[in-house]
Design brief:
The protein has nine helices and four strands; from the N terminus they run H-H-H-H-E-E-H-H-H-E-E-H-H.
Amino acid sequence: MPHDHPHEEHEALVIEDDAGNTEAQIIVDALQGLLIRKGLLTAKEVTSAIARLESPGIHLGAKVVAKAWTDPAFKRRLLDDGRAAVQELDIPVTEARIIVVENTETRHNLITCTLCSCYPRSILGQPPSWYISKAYRARSVREPRRVLSGFGLDLPRDVQLDVHDSNADMRYLVLPEPPADVHALRVADLEALVSRDHLIGVARSVI
């Protein structure tokens, strides 16, 4: 398993309660609840705002994947130099380096950041709360198959599982396997198949 910084020497930078909620999320939830009770916001407005923040990043990742599925030359460039290839699609990449790892029939990739919450935000938007939680950051390197099972993904034993540890200098992105009928689908339909979880590696099949 490729790792880029130590795992056991660092205390978690995210404080969680007994239910695994991060301290920041607890504060945000309390503030949202107060604003809603006072009539300054509605629950629908909060949900819509979150969707606006998260959706563009996920969409950009799906755009990269669909392009790689349908353009072999772009796929080669993406695997060779992820940052440069993504920028070809007019996506402004703020990370110093993007490393794209490819899922195959016999290999699966899982992304984590054991030190803090390094994540390709310019492509995927904000990370989900579970990604920055102490439980995920620790268990994803100690028992990655059990972590995936918790997401409903039970990998066959003959599938190699590689865990990639992001850091401040490099962020990882998973290129999932394309659907069998990839060339029969429109680009928009291909993009719709790709979720954030595919690009982190906690999901595998795009069907």
